[in-house]
Design a protein that fits this description.
255 residues
Length: 255
């Protein structure tokens, strides 16, 4: 298979580590997936690492994040849990969906991680330069057996216009919409309609950024099954945190 130009020029090396935060199936209390969150080698925050990413090294960064996410998740013990692994990727770094996935496939095979448990997650906050190219990435990944997820839905560049053009398998509702959803009628009404619409489209809904039992209860009343946030577990540096069930935590956590 021919390699794309970006694949041949990915010489930059990043010193990356990953933290993992569970996405919880609240009907069972078990991790449905773990999201891999980029960190520096000593746990430095994502902003520190992302500040070094440029157009010139974007492809190398994207590829190395995928490798680090898979190898470190396997080292932390994800395989026997049955949970999926959600890897953040940069659509603007993917030159060719088929060519640029090869290192990911090789890494998963070498580490013994089933590729049908991979989710590729991108954020609406990243400006999409070519929607047609993104649609091709999503379609290609789906045909290869991967799931895709749109993060920060409702907070970025495209919103409903992007959703009308393409549908991922998973959509994550932005935490700004979730915050105080139990006391904010506008937030609650908007979320109710979004959840109902996404369910009708056959899209799995994940609510992220949940910090209180009240937010949890409001989302459960809407029929949201998959949730992520400090209420359940903070990200674990190179580890897979065990989520805490809502009935076992204080009503409000202080970040």
């Amino acid at each position: 298979m021919n390699r794309c130009e970006g694949c041949r020029t990915a010489a930059d090396q990043f010193d990356l580590a990953m933290a993992f935060q569970p996405i919880v199936d609240v009907e069972t209390g078990t991790p449905w997936a773990y999201e891999a969150l980029v960190r520096g080698p000593n746990g430095e925050g994502a902003a520190t690492v992302l500040s070094t990413v440029t157009d010139a090294n974007r492809y190398a960064f994207d590829q190395q994040c995928r490798v680090a996410a898979i190898t470190q998740a396997v080292a932390a013990g994800i395989v026997p849990t049955g949970a999926r692994l959600s890897i953040n990727f940069l659509p603007n770094a993917v030159y060719s969906p088929v060519a640029c996935i090869q290192l990911t496939l090789q890494t998963a095979a070498a580490a013994g991680f089933p590729t049908d448990r991979l989710i590729f997650e991108f954020t609406e906050n990243e400006e999409i330069r070519d929607t047609g190219h993104l649609a091709n990435i999503i379609d290609t990944y789906r045909r290869m057996g991967f799931a895709t997820a749109l993060d920060d839905f409702g907070a970025g560049h495209a919103g409903l216009a992007l959703l009308a053009r393409l549908q991922t398998d998973v959509i994550k509702l932005d935490m700004e919409l979730i915050r105080d959803i139990d006391t904010s009628q506008p937030r609650r009404i908007i979320a109710e309609y979004l959840v109902a619409m996404l369910h009708r489209l056959g899209i799995t809904v994940v609510a992220e950024g949940i910090e209180t039992r009240e937010e949890y209860d409001a989302l459960r009343a809407m029929g949201v099954r998959y949730m992520q946030g400090y209420l359940f577990a903070r990200p674990g540096f190179r580890t897979l945190p065990t989520p805490m069930l809502p009935v076992e935590v204080p009503l409000r956590l202080i970040a």
